[in-house]
């Protein structure tokens, strides 16, 4: 059980918690088949490749290297950057509701810790006003570090002078949750992009 006096900060992941982003929103339509899109994402524009850009590799560099390996997919690979905005479906309403509830309570400071390219995050930040509720945000692409590397969690703590045991971290990736737990964070693992607002409010004693 989390003691309210212990927690001072709530840390949000963004993708899957506040924002609904997926390359399938583009490639399902392009290939006119989810199975073909899945094959392309599993084998060409893979999550591991996407993670290199979240870790700070420029889109142009990552794209060029991949096209060298798969020149027959040059058009489809270029679409990953050219149609990136179409992969961003929009806010996850339950996550935004939770964020706004915590902000309005004035009981906790809000921070973001996201795996996101430094090239595309500014567009998202400017488009959705609720990002201004955060006291601070760590973007992996800017730091050249990526979750679940413990270094990016330590960067958050050091930059904003936080103590891990005073932080409540919300993320949809179990590896990230494990890394945070090992560092002493209090954590909530969100599954299936379902933000249980009432449950988290209960844990944070906001009811």
Polypeptide structure, described:
With 207 residues, this protein is α/β, with parallel strands linked by helices. It folds into two domains: 9-18 and 92-203, Rossmann fold, CATH 3.40.50; 22-88, no CATH class. Helices cover 49% and strands 14% of the residues. The mean pLDDT is 95.
Which helices and strands, and how do they pair?
Layout: E1 9-12, E2 19-21, H1 24-31, H2 34-43, H3 47-54, H4 59-69, H5 74-82, H6 84-87, E3 88-91, H7 93-105, E4 109-114, H8 121-127, E5 136-139, H9 140-143, H10 150-160, E6 167-171, H11 174-182, E7 186-189, H12 197-203
Parallel strand pairs: 1-4, 1-6, 4-5, 6-7
Antiparallel strand pairs: 2-3
Helix pairs in contact: 1-2, 4-5
Anisotropy-based shape: globular
Overall structural class, as computed from helix and strand content, comes to: alpha/beta
- Give the biggest beta sheet: 5 strands, parallel
CATH superfamily of the largest domain: HAD superfamily/HAD-like
Q: Which second-level CATH architecture of the largest domain applies?
A: 3-Layer(aba) Sandwich
Distance between the termini: 15 Å
Number of strands: 7
Q: What is the top-level CATH class of the largest domain?
A: Alpha Beta
Query: What is the third-level CATH name, the topology of the largest domain?
Result: Rossmann fold
Fraction of residues in helices? 40-55%
Helix and strand element order: EEHHHHHHEHEHEHHEHEH
Question: How many structural domains?
Answer: 2
Mean pLDDT rating: 95
SS strand fraction:
5-15%
Q: Which blocks of ≥5 consecutive residues have pLDDT under 50?
A: none
Strand order in the largest sheet: 5-4-1-6-7
Number of helices: 12
From the alpha carbons, calculate the radius of gyration and give it in angstroms: 18 Å
């Amino acid at each position: 059980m989390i003691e309210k006096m212990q927690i001072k900060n709530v840390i949000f992941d963004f993708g899957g918690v506040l924002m609904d982003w997926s390359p399938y929103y583009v490639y399902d339509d392009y290939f006119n088949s989810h199975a073909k899109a899945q094959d392309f994402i599993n084998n060409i524009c893979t999550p591991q490749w996407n993670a290199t850009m979240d870790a700070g590799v420029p889109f142009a560099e990552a794209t060029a290297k991949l096209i060298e390996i798969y020149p027959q997919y040059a058009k489809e690979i270029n679409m990953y950057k050219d149609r990136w905005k179409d992969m961003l479906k929009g806010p996850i309403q339950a996550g935004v509701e939770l964020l706004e509830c915590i902000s309005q309570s004035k009981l906790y400071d809000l921070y973001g810790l996201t795996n996101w390219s430094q090239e595309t995050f500014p567009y998202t930040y400017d488009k959705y006003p609720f990002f201004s509720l955060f006291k601070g945000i760590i973007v992996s692409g800017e730091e050249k570090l990526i979750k679940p590397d413990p270094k990016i969690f330590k960067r958050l703590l050091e930059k904003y002078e936080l103590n891990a045991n005073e932080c409540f971290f919300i993320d949809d990736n179990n590896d990230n949750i494990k890394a945070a737990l090992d560092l002493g964070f209090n954590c909530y693992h969100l599954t299936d992009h379902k933000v249980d607002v009432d449950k988290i409010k209960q844990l944070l004693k906001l009811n």
